[in-house]
Structures are given as structure tokens and as C-alpha cells.
Amino acid sequence: MQLPHSPPAHGRILAVEDDPVLAAHLGNHLGQRGFEVTLRHDGGEIVDLVRSQDFDLILMDIMLPGSSGLEVLAQLRRHQRVPVILMSALGAEQDRITGFSQGADDYLPKPFSMLEMDVRIDAILRRVAYEHEVPGGVRHDPQLLFDEQRADVSQGGQWADLTTTEYRVLETLVAHVDEVLSKAFLYQQVMHRAYSQHDRSLDMHVSRIRRKLQAIGYTAGRVETVRSMGYMLTRRAA
Question: Taking the mean position of all CA atoms in its chain, how far away is CA 91?
Fold first, then answer.
């Protein structure tokens, strides 16, 4: 039965889950919502599959036979920008940290409800659709070149290799330079979900942005943490 606030959807989702019962449940639920769902039960052929077919989103368990979900994610991120939501047992904090550091867009702790999964999937697909609709253009930054289609920034010809979520966070900070943006605002604006004080995913994304900007030699600004408030991009004196 369709949930009241889970409207009919469309698009292609690759669900990678080794538990046959949960995999079947995911496939049936997402199929009922209108998605075209491809199910796989191990990580062995995922990279080749994603190279040969177009998917709008990947829902992938971390604990998989053969190649783990984290290993598959690391391989995907060398060439693919398709959004990835990882699934894993509740409390596996190191898995979450590693997943975000390797480019995961979101994380679902098991056990989770189909309602929560729907909200996470819809938020990511809305964000991707928005990125495709907004025309590209020069952002107001003295060093960074923004590429909307690639969802990445470059400095001196070197790409930062941002994930789509990292790109949206940085783009929002640059658009509000020298302005403190609350975590609640960034969660709503960029990640399209409510902020919870126990949710550290935004902190992980910001940490990765800092590291990647430093790696390409970005010196025009710095992403600052404003205690008990949020984040801001400050300009450095020339």
C-alpha cells in the first residue's frame, strides 16, 4: 500500500543486499513505488554493472560476500558519481565514517523502516534533479571553478573530486560567504532532511571538503566551525 507522503516515483535503483528476505522486501516496496529495481546479492559484479547500465541511485549493504560495500564504493568513486546510500548494522560508527570518507551520500542504520528509506531516497533524487535543472555559471569565488554537471570544483586545473553532497554543501557556503549557516539550515537546504543532534553526517562531509580543498591548493577561503551554531566560509586576506 502506498504511504501517504511517498508519492509515485520513477527512476532506476540498484539494490545490493545479501539477505534474500530483505532484498525481496526492498525490491517489492520500491517497485510498488514506481522505481525500476535491479537486485544483486553480492559486490562482485557491481562496478561492471554500473559501468554498463545507468542507475539513478544505489542502495548497498556494507557487509556483502565477496567485495564489501565499502570496497565497491571506493571502486565506484574512481569514475562514477551515482548517489550511494549505504546500509549497515546500528552502531557501526567506523563503517559510517569510512563510508562517508569514501563518498557515500547517505547512511541507513539497520534496522530501518521503509518510510525512513523512502525519505532518504526521495531527498537525494530531488537534489540530483535540482542540480540538473539549475543552469551552470561562475560562482563568486576567486579561485574555484564550479562545474554543475560534474558536481565538482577545480583549482588550477586540479579537480577536488567532491561527492555530490559535498559539492552542494560547498556551493551553499560559497553563496553565503562570511555568513554563519546553521546545521539545521544546511540539513534542510542541502540534505533535505531534518537535523538531529546525533546525526554527524554533515560534520563528516565538511571535514572531507576541507581536506579536498587543501589538497588542490585552495587558499582563498576557509570553512570555519562556529561553535554551537554551524559553519561558514570566511575569506582570507590576499
Answer: 20
Structural domain ending residue among the three candidates 131, 149, 171? 131
Q: Please report whether residue 83 resides in a domain.
A: yes
136: exposed, middle or buried (C-beta count within 10 Å: 0-12, 13-18, 19+)? Answer: exposed
- 3-class secondary-structure state, position 113: coil
Which residue stretches of the chain have pLDDT < 50? 1-5, 135-138
Residue whose grid cell is 582563498: 220
CB 104, CB 84: distance < 8 Å: yes
Residue 163 burial (CB count, 10 A): 23
> Is residue 6 included in any domain, yes or no?
no
Domain that holds residue 96: 12-131
Residue 57: partners with Cβ closer than 8 Å, 6 or more residues away? 11, 12, 13, 14, 82, 83, 84, 85, 121, 124, 125
Assign 35 to helix, strand or coil. coil
Nearest-angstrom CA–CA distance, 92 and 151: 29
Q: Would you tell me the crossing angle of helices 20-33 and 114-133 to the nearest 10 degrees?
A: 50
Q: How far apart are CA 68 and CA 78, in angstroms?
A: 16
Residues 111 and 146 in one domain: no
Give residue for cell 566560509.
Answer: 233
Same-domain status, 191 and 81: no
User: For the segment 64-103, what is each residue's pLDDT rounded down to a tens digit?
Assistant: 988 889 999 988 887 777 899 999 875 566 777 777 777 7
